[in-house]
Please model this.
Amino acid sequence: MSFDKIDLFDASKGKRGTSLSKLLNGINGPQDLKHLSVLQLEKLAGEIRELLIHTVANNGGHLAPNLGVVELTLALHKMFDSPRDKFIWDVGHQAYVHKILTGRRETFSTLRTSGGICGFPKRSESQHDAFGSGHSSTSISAALGIALARDMSGAKGNVVAIIGDGSLTGGQAYEALNHAGHLAINLTVILNDNEMSIAKNVGAMSEYLAKMRTAPTYSKVKHDIEYLLRRIPAIGDSVANTAERVKDSLKYLLVPGMLFEELGFTYFGPIDGHNIPLLLDVLDKTKSVKGPVLIHLLTQKGKGYAPAERNADKFHGVGPFCIETGEIQKNATSAPSYTQVFGDTIVKLAEQNPDIVAITAAMPDGTGLKKFAATFPKRFFDVGIAEQHAITLAAGMATQGKRPVVAIYSTFIQRAYDQILHDVCLQNLPVIFMLDRAGIVGEDGPTHHGVFDYSLLRHIPNMVIMTPKDEDELRHMLYTATELNAPVAIRYPRGNGVGVKLQDCFTKLETGKAEQLISGKDVVLLATGAMVEPCKSAAAILAGKEISASVINARYIKPLDEQTIRQLARDTGIIVTVEDNVLAGGFGSAVLEYINSQNLNWVKVLRLGLPDKFIEHGQRGQLLTQHGLDDQGIATSVETFIRQFGARK
Amino acid sequence: MSFDKIDLFDASKGKRGTSLSKLLNGINGPQDLKHLSVLQLEKLAGEIRELLIHTVANNGGHLAPNLGVVELTLALHKMFDSPRDKFIWDVGHQAYVHKILTGRRETFSTLRTSGGICGFPKRSESQHDAFGSGHSSTSISAALGIALARDMSGAKGNVVAIIGDGSLTGGQAYEALNHAGHLAINLTVILNDNEMSIAKNVGAMSEYLAKMRTAPTYSKVKHDIEYLLRRIPAIGDSVANTAERVKDSLKYLLVPGMLFEELGFTYFGPIDGHNIPLLLDVLDKTKSVKGPVLIHLLTQKGKGYAPAERNADKFHGVGPFCIETGEIQKNATSAPSYTQVFGDTIVKLAEQNPDIVAITAAMPDGTGLKKFAATFPKRFFDVGIAEQHAITLAAGMATQGKRPVVAIYSTFIQRAYDQILHDVCLQNLPVIFMLDRAGIVGEDGPTHHGVFDYSLLRHIPNMVIMTPKDEDELRHMLYTATELNAPVAIRYPRGNGVGVKLQDCFTKLETGKAEQLISGKDVVLLATGAMVEPCKSAAAILAGKEISASVINARYIKPLDEQTIRQLARDTGIIVTVEDNVLAGGFGSAVLEYINSQNLNWVKVLRLGLPDKFIEHGQRGQLLTQHGLDDQGIATSVETFIRQFGARK
Ligand SMILES: [Mg+2]
Ligand SMILES: [Mg+2]
Model:
């Protein structure tokens, strides 16, 4: 395959909007593609890439995945009829082109900004977004549900799931393939194979796909086989059955996707996913195939933008960057991110403790494990997008004395609740969960906020849950976890630490013990993790209003520091809990439960946290402010509460 | 295959213990098998079947699965060296024979009774139970973790996962195969294929396995192929590569398990899983194979006990029964089970509402959907053991106007938290979850109690959670759910209803509205679901002690009936919440949150429910009593609380 690169952009085109040329300006919906020629579609592909690059350079977002599906998305909207025909985008971070082509071209500049276009398909945003997504490996299930409903209702329309090779490592994709193949239903699965999940894809399935990629072309093999078959002489009755099976078996050769064929799918491929006429041809042909079809496309992640082609991993999900150089805009603060500190710390601890191993579900970079992987390649395991497996695997290792550290985003731990409960906690095994991107994550929105983890984990027996006030405390918490003989989750936010000095040594933190940071007499702020800093500022604001507030760094969500809570409740009579988690079942709820169990009815508790609704996308700071979780918001809530209920009992 | 049946038992042997013959009496651990001949092992197999049948006839349990693995388990313990070699039993309900052979023969009569042998592998019970299980499809993950830890530590030992064809429909099994195949690690997976999960197995993989079962024997095919190959003449250079591929392709024929081979496993099979010498031979041979091995065994579920062979589904998990007839002991009460009432109700509603469809994850019978499946075969979907897929599938259908009812046990919903949150609730789709076997389930123990669902679901935005006080209310709740445009979970206990009359019509229950059953002035019992009846009795007991208690049937866990709670709090000043869920994050916690949010500090709340620990197995009534959740326990707790804190403020 040889791909033309689109021109690098003039600096003058770097401004939003100016780079839109005529063709794209005329595309206000899929119908506007119908009359375009292949050549025009190819030109349009270039224009779309420009828009993608400029928008993501400004707003941040998922660049490389979208650059890889420009031709595919054009071909889909040319050949099919959305919204009657339905496209289900697995994970969904590659649906930008689809959004641009379905009436959201003009608003695309608002991508991932508050009130603007969401970075993922969203039913409430457009009738063309047939099914919302955000986490991996659900598309075939949803598509199958839609197709079954269509058939039951006697309706018409094609249903197409678009799934990456990475998402195919998730077990749910296989559950759905297994079901669909068995039903012989009309359904198209497009396997968008770029040899990557976020990082390089892993697993036997990935190797299987690779074998297909390097196989001789379909037509060459077909010709040779026919030649060979002609030379097999006529055979007697006794082996006739076997001969039949030999022919069957040759299908295996002719059809490189035999594995999918065995699962009941008709396989087409592998096909160059950047060749528009070829794509149109195969989509057209497969429309008339009865039963489920799998089209295997080969695409290049980041295609058409040299920096992203060279480093698809970096440009998978990216912050604002310079188009000319591909340089990511540096954050103003020089404090290292929590992710980085975790990555350095686990390496340091692993040098001293040979039992420490690390596991990631397809995110060695995002979780900060790259350095560990390079330093201890034999103690590092990337299992693919397979959170369930990751956790039971860790439990298995823990039974043999290993200290597995499973590094996973808070939002993705939702995929493996049962494994945490059964395989780890019921057996009380010392597996450590590093829950990065907890709380509000910002621009990725409701599918990615890590705002349920306290509620999800704290009711599981044996579980210990910690959350650090800063990046140095994260280090001590990880160390402490490796010294505890229990399941431990450590939960920390996205982004930079608060900029404290990292200590040279590690301190074991007493289990279930909070830390008093500021001493006051009117009210106690019981702050968790990323809420500690704003609580400290809030205390300063309150001091200006003659309200003297203690600030406690909770450290442990479970077990609670009951003694401290009891003591402080006695001292001030007013406790304010602050968490970037939903209030329902969260940290404040745990405090209420404790106070209730002790019949400390005279204690007044104010719980600050997130409401019982899904939080939309937007800038993290903005969203925290909006929900009253910045210093000013906290101070105001506390002041109002105190004015209403008075200090001290 | 022709299997000898073991003799039906004399009635005189029906008593526990008397049926143990000499051979089994001498087996106190795996080492006692080492000197036995094949003939002796075969005799032992018969004795073990006797013990299994007698014990389960007394205690209830998983009979058919265990009858199917007698020879396999004997062969494993003969050829391997537990606990150095490790067996990981998927799901685990087929580990009875393993328990009998590993020092638990004498205590086996206590199976599933309080303080006795657990019905599932349990690390704390024996060093031979390498990994606990209870839910499906985790064994390969755990085995891989153990094998990796072994290799990292330079330790020795074989690791063997034993997984059924049903468990292979669960996506996690595939995630683990994908990972293991890629690693080329020494690991044995035994696929125990009986063409069943609990009911008849479904899906494309199952059809694939069936094809292998009916394929000609390995040696016949091999002979025929060699004959054919000899007749292919020498070929020129131009097609030499293809000829190579033809040979590769023929492997597909020689190796029926090519699908597993493609995933990196060396496949052996299919092999008669009841033929002890054959099993010993294949286990011996595969020990020296490098890399992961998959041994495909064909077994018969229920083997050796005619009633179970005829009806393996019924004898999968079974209550006490009569050995001679296979008749299940009828429960004394004549009230229909919740499961039955649900099964009848959904059929009735579906007759009126063509949009209603039903989905099960491999449990058409256990969930009560058999009648629906027979009445509306085109609206019924058994997806295999694939809870994640089941729920996203339902979400897909709901986007097209269907009303999917997903019937699933409370404990298994734990497998699909993320799908409930993302695919259903975030999109606010009207999917109905029927959570059977909620609360304490009894003999199946900690892996099967449904005691986390309130805490798991109530913090998810948009979710409506109901729980009926009796089997008639279940009907109205299901009807109400079909009329609501929101995700709804209905949660009900295992076993018989309370015996109320079933009404002819359906009533739509007001959303978030509780029902007052008894009016009192000293205290309010806010009871949920199965706790309503004991609360009514508790109120009667309390009345005898001059305590006048209101009893409220909560009906809704979410949204709470805030108005009623507020009013009753005002009336009595004391609220007692009663739930068969863990207290952490549960219903009582929701009530505390509400009272806190309203600053009703003067209300005294007593929360009755389950503690923050895993509940062991035992009789359901016993366990409820033990945790103070029977009428007497509730009455005592309430009385104590009132005596301590006084009635009225
Ligand atoms: Mg990919
Ligand atoms: Mg089976």
Summary: Chain B touches chain A through 133 residues (CB under 8 Å). Residues B 164-166, 194, 196-197 surround magnesium ion (ligand 2) (CB under 6 Å).
